[in-house]
Specification:
Layout: H1 8-14, H2 19-35, H3 37-47, H4 50-68, H5 73-101, H6 105-136, H7 139-159, H8 173-185, H9 188-217, H10 222-229, H11 231-246, H12 252-275, H13 281-308, H14 314-335, H15 345-370
Helix pairs in contact: 1-2, 2-5, 2-14, 3-5, 3-8, 3-14, 4-5, 4-7, 5-14, 6-10, 6-11, 6-13, 9-13, 9-14, 9-15, 11-13, 12-13, 12-15, 13-14
Length: about 375
């Protein structure tokens, strides 16, 4: 998702189009990434995790190769959609595997470790992507991702155990999938957890899509932008590490609330600096460290909550939660491209709106949890 971010500001010139159209290529990945998760999830509950993971990585590899050879922005946008459709398997089935192998507080702890690994990937990809863009051109990044998809496909096939979850059933898979999602929609706690996860993801995607544009206006080029973007994912790693330690001392809902407060404060600080005329990349990257730290406290517990409310439907629950994340992320990532983003004001306002709705979802969740017998109804 992030390796091509440093290249995106240049695509409007390469393909002679608007920046909003360029942002659509990012959103197409995110939309496919989310939509396919609601399909991979229930299918993995029925047929097993491993074979669907292999299929997903193969599809992501094909999309990457097509993107590397794309002659136009329309072709690149389509290729990114295919790439996202394949990559969605890794996200949803990875979370479902955590539910399969861990329980209780260990589940949130392992989710924190997963978050730490993901936090490493995002900044590392932007740094590598910027350097590859400068040295070899933007197409080389997609060849690199195609190679990585092949490696993932092989290691999944030979490294994961046989699909023990596969089960026989007489009902059609589509009818069963719709029945599962109707069941999850009737569980208030699942809806509330999903709202927290989805709305808390929005600021991250706005940051990923908007920061390269804002920093370009602040004089930061493709080879340097990754170093500024990486501060938020790195602080996200730190937040996940703290979560793995603080779960023994604080409850999961308390960590979620602290994380939301840190995020709101950090984005308000970015807005205040921008309105005060401080137009420096450090005025964006510095405060965003607190947002990453807050999301590191929030996400592991919220994600663990989505898959644990109805454990037997972990894959399906992870799928719908993943879809909601990517849909709101795609909206934020595309919408921020409709503005000039000469300063960080528009970006900060978008992020604040997402965080406030996430707060409302969390308040609803606390009320559900305080009512005996209502969390899993």
């Amino acid at each position: 998702m992030t390796i091509c971010l440093p290249s995106m500001p240049s695509w409007s010139e390469v393909f002679s189009t608007s920046q909003a159209n360029v942002q659509l290529s990012f959103s197409s990945f995110v939309v496919a990434f989310g939509l396919t998760q609601v399909i991979y999830g229930p299918l993995s509950d029925r047929y097993g995790r491993r074979r669907l993971l292999v299929f997903g990585f193969a599809l992501a590899g094909v999309g990457s190769i097509v993107a590397a050879m794309a002659p136009s922005l329309a072709a690149l946008t389509f290729a990114r959609f295919v790439q996202g459709a394949g990559a969605g398997a890794g996200m949803v089935l990875g979370r479902a595997l955590v539910q399969d192998f861990f329980s209780g507080s260990d589940r949130a702890r392992v989710m924190a470790y997963v978050g730490m690994a993901m936090g490493v990937c995002a900044p590392l990809a932007t740094v590598i992507g910027g350097q590859v863009h400068v040295q070899l051109g933007w197409r080389a990044n997609f060849w690199l991702i195609g190679g990585l998809a092949t490696v993932l496909m092989l290691t999944t096939w030979f490294g994961l155990p046989t699909d023990a979850r596969a089960r026989a059933t007489e009902s059609h898979w589509l009818r069963e999938m719709l029945s599962i999602y109707r069941r999850l929609a009737q569980v208030p706690a699942f809806i509330a957890f999903t709202g927290v996860v989805a709305m808390s993801t929005g600021p991250f995607y706005v940051f990923l899509a908007g920061t390269p544009i804002v920093l370009a206006n602040y004089g930061v080029g493709p080879s340097e932008v990754g170093f500024f973007i990486m501060v938020m994912p790195l602080s996200y790693i730190a937040g996940n590490f703290l979560t793995s330690r603080l779960l023994k001392r604080f409850g999961e809902t308390e960590l979620m609330f602290i994380g939301q407060c840190l995020g709101l404060f950090s984005v308000c600080l970015v807005l205040g600096l921008a309105l005060s005329g401080v137009h420096s990349p450090f005025a964006v990257a510095g405060p965003m460290m607190l947002l990453g730290l807050g999301q590191g406290l929030l996400m592991p517990t919220a994600l663990a909550g989505t898959v644990s409310v109805v454990p037997v439907l972990a894959g399906s629950a992870a799928g719908i939660a993943g879809l909601s994340q990517q849909m709101f992320g795609a909206f934020g990532g595309y919408a921020i491209g409709l503005f000039d983003n000469n300063t960080a004001v528009e970006m900060a306002l978008f992020m604040i709106a997402f965080i406030l709705v996430a707060f409302a979802s969390q308040i609803w969740l606390r009320r559900i949890q305080s009512t005996p017998g209502s969390a899993g109804d």
